[in-house]
């Protein structure tokens, strides 16, 4: 039977007009047909199975060849047919490969045959995974495609399994090395060109050995485990050999590239299929350096170029640009000079111009502009003139076109989305004048040079869709007059959109939403006065920031919230204060860090400040109570209690239980006694970082001579101001505490610096180490006290280090 002939567009034709032909009759097995197509010169073009009723779909492995008969592209498709064994053939008709399938994937033996019928290699798959033997390819073993007829039939991609895979133990070492090999044979030979050993680890195949051979069987190189990129399949040290393939057999060497420590290093050579050199170039630390020489097929030099630091330096270069453009241009000492021609993949010229001193001088050019966008520009005497085009990946997919005269925008600018016009605007002297200026998620309407409207979109795409509009803002004489907002919903006042009226460019009446990204809310005004705020629990609505629903209402009076939550956004913290009838009831302090979040909840209950930590669910209590004639404050954390009370500074070192902290207050020095009652010294929970924050707050901020309500409000202020909060969290030098003295159980000083009364606003300083006096400074003025304490502290630390190192 005569072959079936096709023209260059794959339309059936006669033999005289044919570019391709198909062997007829096609081999059939069950419901499948094996399609074998050839170029008219008898070079293979395609081989693969299809359902008999749908030859545009594919089943199993398919492969395309270029006009020279070399592999062009190949894919593996699911095999959901009733034919579980597929057979492939050499162009001569001899059996080449057999593959077994189960549930769509390769399962069982795959065998590769020499043309004389002997077995070259055999490998076993289990549920699509190579588990034993030798294979043509192993890295794409799970990369299956589903064809259209399978989707139409309602078939789904099979569930992945882990059968047949070696697992690692808890130390990440293989319990048992399971080896498979990838083998490449020289065509028409039983001689290997390359083989790679892989260890199957979980769902991954990791190479640990590679050998390359020439056609005579001589070993060219051996690469061991240390020469592969760690956790990768690429060569780190050695030579990467690439081949011209036909049916995954090596026909000839295509290139060889040397690598050192994961980077190209030394000479790289490309070859013609006949073995002659096509191109030579050199690399240093992964970058091209020195001469690159390209040859004609007869061995004569076609072109010579020089690279420096990986960049073109001297000669004529073809450089790829965007998707399918190639720029041919000349460099002299690293500077672009002379004619440049840009061609598309068909070879048609799309731009042509002249460079002078590395700059576009006259003509048309494709460049990366200052915003890293692809641009086709038209230039006269170094300046843009005429229509310019900014485009996406493809030249015929513009983002916008604009008109210039002597580098100044004058004339029409047109905006595009998916090759459709979505807006136009005229510029005068580089300023928008009349029309619609389109940006990613915003459009601005101009009339006679003035803004009349701004339109904001949910997405930068589909700007013609009304449902994509978030809000519109209207202007008169450069000032806002009205906003219509569709970006949120107030659950107690449901509307399709919410309107706000401006007066003198400031909110006057209606609804005005914030744009904070992390946390948004809506303010409601009447006659220029803010009345209400609508918000939500932002932790529960992080995923709904695109269209938040607000179900919490706060009421303002005289510009301050008196009922409901008040929100304060700091650099790394977020504070929520809860008010009722103008009285602070509780507040939340949210702390953010890299991969970390925690909330501290403060609440005044029955004359006690109660602090709850969200992550650990631990609770602490702060209490102020009378102790004789003085007040003391307590911090209770679990079974442990910290007690703090004031101490009068005298002219002798105190004899006390507990430790003394000295701090500045009202231009004088005061002191506090800190004692700890620990029933559970080993409790990690009571010494966690989050509870250290509470302890630091208690020691530095609680004033036992003031009411618990004043202290509660004072803490709220501290957590609402960045500077005070940073001082609290970091315990830096800006805190009020200037020194401390630790005491032994017998009430004798142990280590630290004591501050004693001298007279007036002058003080005596004494330092102690291990119960012994170390140094002193008498009669120090208050304004110099920190400086003198720092001198004593340095000496103290030096002695402590010497004692520690003995």
The total count of strands amounts to 61
Content-based structural category: mainly beta
Radius of gyration: 40 Å
Overall geometry comes to extended
Strand content: over 45%
Number of continuous helical runs: 5
User: How much helical structure, as a percent, in the residues?
Assistant: under 10%
Straight-line distance between termini: 100 Å
Give the low-pLDDT segments. Answer: 161-175
The structural domain count equals 5
Query: What profile does the largest beta sheet have?
Result: 42 strands, antiparallel
How confident is the prediction overall: mean pLDDT? 90
Task: Please explain how this structure is put together.
The protein is mainly β and 806 residues long. It has 5 helices and 61 strands. It has a 42-stranded antiparallel sheet that branches. The protein has a 9-stranded mixed sheet with strand order 8-9-10-11-12-14-15-16-17, with no helix packed on it. A hairpin with an 8-residue loop joins strand 43 and strand 44. The longest helix has 21 residues. About 2% of the residues have low confidence. This is Antitoxin component YwqK of YwqJK toxin-antitoxin module.
Set down the secondary structure blueprint:
Layout: E1 4-6, E2 20-22, E3 27-29, E4 32-39, E5 44-51, E6 59-65, E7 71-77, E8 85-89, E9 95-102, E10 105-113, E11 119-126, E12 129-135, E13 144-145, H1 148-152, E14 179-185, E15 192-201, E16 204-213, E17 219-224, E18 238-246, E19 249-260, E20 263-271, E21 277-284, E22 287-288, E23 290-295, E24 301-308, E25 311-321, E26 325-332, E27 335-343, E28 349-356, E29 359-368, E30 374-380, E31 383-384, E32 386-391, E33 398-405, E34 408-417, E35 420-428, E36 431-438, E37 442-447, E38 450-457, E39 469-476, E40 479-485, E41 489-490, E42 498-503, E43 506-513, E44 522-526, E45 529-535, E46 549-550, E47 552-557, E48 560-569, E49 573-580, E50 583-593, E51 596-605, E52 608-613, E53 619-627, E54 630-637, E55 640-647, E56 659-665, E57 668-677, H2 689-701, H3 708-718, H4 722-730, E58 737-743, E59 749-759, E60 762-769, E61 772-781, H5 785-805
Parallel strand pairs: 7-13, 12-14, 41-46
Antiparallel strand pairs: 1-2, 2-4, 3-4, 4-5, 5-6, 6-7, 8-9, 9-10, 10-11, 11-12, 14-15, 15-16, 16-17, 18-19, 19-20, 20-21, 21-22, 21-23, 23-24, 24-25, 25-26, 26-27, 27-28, 28-29, 29-30, 30-31, 30-32, 32-33, 33-34, 34-35, 35-36, 36-37, 37-38, 38-39, 39-40, 40-42, 42-43, 43-44, 44-45, 45-47, ...
């Amino acid at each position: 039977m005569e072959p079936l002939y096709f023209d260059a567009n794959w339309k059936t034709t006669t033999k005289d007009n044919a570019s391709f032909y198909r062997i007829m009759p096609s081999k059939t097995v069950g419901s499948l047909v094996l399609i074998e197509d050839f170029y008219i010169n008898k070079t293979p073009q395609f081989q693969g199975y299809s359902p008999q009723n749908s030859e545009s779909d594919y089943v199993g492995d398919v492969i395309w060849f270029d006009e020279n008969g070399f592999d062009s592209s190949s894919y593996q498709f699911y095999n959901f047919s009733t034919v579980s064994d597929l057979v492939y053939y050499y162009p001569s008709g001899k059996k080449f490969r057999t593959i077994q399938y189960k549930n769509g994937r390769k399962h069982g033996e795959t065998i590769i045959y020499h043309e004389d019928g002997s077995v070259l290699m055999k490998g076993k798959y289990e549920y699509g995974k190579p588990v034993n033997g030798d294979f043509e390819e192993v890295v794409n073993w799970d990369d299956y495609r589903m064809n259209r007829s399978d989707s139409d039939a309602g078939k789904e991609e099979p569930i992945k399994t882990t059968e047949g895979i070696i697992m690692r133990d808890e130390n990440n070492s293989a319990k048992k090395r399971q080896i498979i090999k990838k083998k490449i044979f020289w065509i028409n030979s039983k001689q290997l060109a390359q083989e790679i050993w892989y260890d199957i680890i979980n769902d991954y195949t990791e190479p640990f050995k590679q050998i390359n051979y020439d056609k005579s069987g001589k070993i060219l190189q051996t690469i061991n485990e240390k020469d592969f990129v760690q956790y990768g399949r690429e060569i780190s040290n050695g030579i990467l050999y690439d081949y011209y393939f036909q049916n995954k057999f090596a026909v000839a060497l295509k290139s060889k590239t040397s690598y050192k420590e994961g980077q190209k290093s030394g000479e790289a050579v490309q070859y013609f299929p006949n073995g002659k050199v096509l191109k030579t170039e050199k690399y240093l630390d992964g970058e091209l350096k020195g001469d690159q020489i390209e040859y004609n097929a007869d061995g004569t030099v076609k072109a010579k170029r020089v690279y420096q630091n990986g960049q073109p330096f001297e000669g004529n270069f073809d450089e790829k640009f965007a998707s399918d453009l190639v720029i041919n241009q000349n460099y002299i000492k690293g500077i672009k000079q002379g004619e440049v021609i840009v061609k598309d993949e068909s070879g048609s010229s799309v731009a042509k111009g002249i460079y002078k001193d590395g700059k576009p001088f006259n003509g048309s050019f494709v460049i990366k502009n200052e915003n890293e966008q692809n641009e086709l520009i038209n230039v006269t005497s170094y300046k843009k003139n005429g229509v310019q085009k900014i485009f996406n990946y493809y030249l015929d997919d513009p983002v916008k076109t604009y008109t210039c005269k002597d580098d100044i925008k004058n004339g029409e600018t047109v905006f595009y989305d998916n090759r459709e016009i979505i807006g136009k605007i005229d510029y005068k002297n580089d300023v928008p004048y009349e029309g619609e200026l389109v940006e990613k998620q915003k459009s601005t309407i101009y009339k006679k040079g003035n803004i009349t409207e701004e339109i904001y979109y949910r997405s930068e795409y589909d700007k013609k869709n009304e449902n994509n509009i978030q809000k519109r803002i209207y202007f008169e004489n450069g000032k806002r007059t009205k906003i219509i907002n569709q970006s949120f919903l107030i659950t107690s006042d449901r509307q399709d959109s919410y309107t706000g009226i401006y007066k003198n460019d400031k909110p006057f009446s209606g609804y005005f939403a914030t744009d904070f990204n992390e946390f948004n809310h809506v303010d409601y005004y009447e006659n220029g006065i803010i009345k209400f705020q609508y918000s939500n629990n932002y932790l529960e609505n992080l995923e709904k920031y695109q269209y938040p629903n607000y179900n919490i209402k706060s009421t303002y009076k005289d510009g301050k919230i008196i009922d409901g939550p008040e929100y304060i956004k700091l650099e790394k913290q977020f504070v929520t204060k809860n008010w009722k009838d103008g009285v602070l009831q509780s507040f939340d302090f949210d702390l953010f860090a890299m991969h970390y979040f925690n909330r501290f909840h403060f609440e005044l209950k029955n004359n006690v400040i109660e602090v709850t930590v969200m992550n650990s669910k631990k609770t602490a209590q702060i209490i102020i109570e009378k102790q004789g004639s003085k007040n003391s404050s307590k911090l209770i954390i679990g079974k442990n209690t910290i007690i703090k009370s004031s101490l009068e500074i005298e002219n002798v070192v105190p004899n006390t239980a507990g430790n003394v902290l000295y701090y500045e207050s009202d231009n004088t020095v005061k002191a506090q006694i800190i004692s700890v009652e620990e029933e559970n010294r080993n409790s990690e929970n009571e010494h966690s970082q989050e509870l250290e924050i509470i302890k630091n707050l208690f020691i530095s901020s609680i004033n036992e001579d003031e009411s618990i309500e004043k202290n509660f409000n004072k803490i709220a202020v501290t957590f609402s101001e960045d500077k005070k909060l940073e001082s609290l969290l970091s315990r830096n030098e800006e805190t009020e505490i200037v020194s401390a003295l630790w005491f032994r159980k017998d009430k004798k000083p142990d280590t630290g610096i004591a501050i004693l009364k001298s007279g007036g606003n002058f003080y005596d300083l004494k330092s102690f180490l291990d119960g012994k006096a170390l140094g002193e400074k008498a009669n120090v003025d208050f304004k110099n006290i920190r400086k003198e304490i720092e001198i004593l502290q340095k000496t103290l630390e030096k002695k402590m280090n010497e004692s520690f190192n003995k």
